[in-house]
Amino acid sequence: MKKLRILVLTHESLVPPASLEGYTEQQINEWKTEYDVMTVLGKAGHEVKALGLYDNLADLRNAVAEWKPDIAFNLLQEFQGIITYDQYIVAYLELLRQPYTGCNPRGMMLSRDKVLSKQILSYHRIATPQFLIFRRQHPCRLSRKLKFPLFVKSATEDASLGIAQASIVEDRARLKERIDFIHDSTKTDALVEEYIEGRELYVSVCGNERLTTFPVWEMDFGTLNGATAGIATRKVKWDLKYQKKHGINTGKAPGLSDADHERLGRLSKRIYRALHMSGYARMDFRMRADGTAYVLEANCNPNLSHGEDFADSAECGGVTYEELLHRLIRLGLGYGAEWRLNEA
């Protein structure tokens, strides 16, 4: 790939230092994605510049106008502290006619809205757990269609915010308590869905029109298996000491047949297209003992850290980390945004 000017967009608190020296593992983990992306692209010969954003669009506009990057490498997960606002940054980039990596605004909006995405998937007859939405400051009325145990989470937050063992409830009293907890702690609506017992599987997808899937990945809950419900709580996902203590890790899903891999790959592509996604994404599934797979979430722009699920799955599929980043850049440069189509 020719040498490019790459503007890396990230939260203002996550602009990485030039070196890891002097930082603890926990500190590094906060901005590891940003560090990995900038370091690898810099070593590949590109001119890389970080732009930390919180709530000032003028900084972005000025950077694009003055530096004229070939592409914006989008690592933002929120704007103004609101997770669903990052889609507007991507929309703003399109208004500036600035190519970017990752998902387009429509795909971000549809996939980030867990209720709307489940409604769309249900329309396409893609299996997802039965669910209800409980709005803040509205009375809780439980449909008899939903069967306990139930799983309660935020309707919009990601990164397992608000998810714990207590998220699985067995009766109406605990359900009401957990709904109230989600309303109060996350300030969002609560999504209640039937709990699916089974394996937690992830499928990484990459592409715009032509899609590629990487080997199916699985969360191994280590010593937690059998002792507690196998769910990806916030501690399971982000607490390094907790992960080491219980032997929690992810890796290529063992024991799946070629037919299972092919079926999950096809299903992931259907989900990707149904939600109008582009760039790259990770699909989260639960697979029951009988092989039935239910999609839990479609995650646009998942964690790109070297050594995390997406990058490891790609490497298992024969794509190195540097090659993966370059592939995402090519997809961003080639994405058919409306402004490009109008110029054609």
Secondary structure: elements and pairs:
Layout (H helix, E strand, L loop, with lengths): L4 E7 L13 H6 L1 H12 L3 E7 L3 H11 L3 E4 L11 H10 L9 H8 L1 H10 L7 E4 L15 E5 L13 E2 L2 H15 L3 E5 L4 E9 L3 E3 L3 E4 L13 H5 L1 H7 L2 E4 L5 H17 L4 E9 L5 E8 L8 H8 L4 H14 L3 H6 L1
Parallel strand pairs: 1-2, 1-3
Antiparallel strand pairs: 4-7, 5-6, 5-7, 8-9, 8-10, 8-12, 10-11, 12-13
Can you walk through the features of this model?
The structure is a single chain. With 344 residues, the protein is α+β, with helices and mostly antiparallel strands. The protein folds into 3 domains: 98 residues, Rossmann fold (3-Layer(aba) Sandwich), CATH 3.40.50; 65 residues, Dna Ligase, domain 1, CATH 3.30.1490; 137 residues, ATP-grasp fold, B domain (D-amino Acid Aminotransferase, Chain A, domain 1). Helix content is 38%, strand content 21%. The strands form 3 sheets. Strands 8, 9, 10, 11, 12 and 13 form a 6-stranded antiparallel sheet that branches. The chain has a 4-stranded antiparallel sheet with strand order 4-7-5-6, covered by helices on one side. A hairpin with a 5-residue loop joins β12 and β13. The longest helix is centred in the C-terminal third of the chain and has 17 residues. The two termini are 24 Å apart.
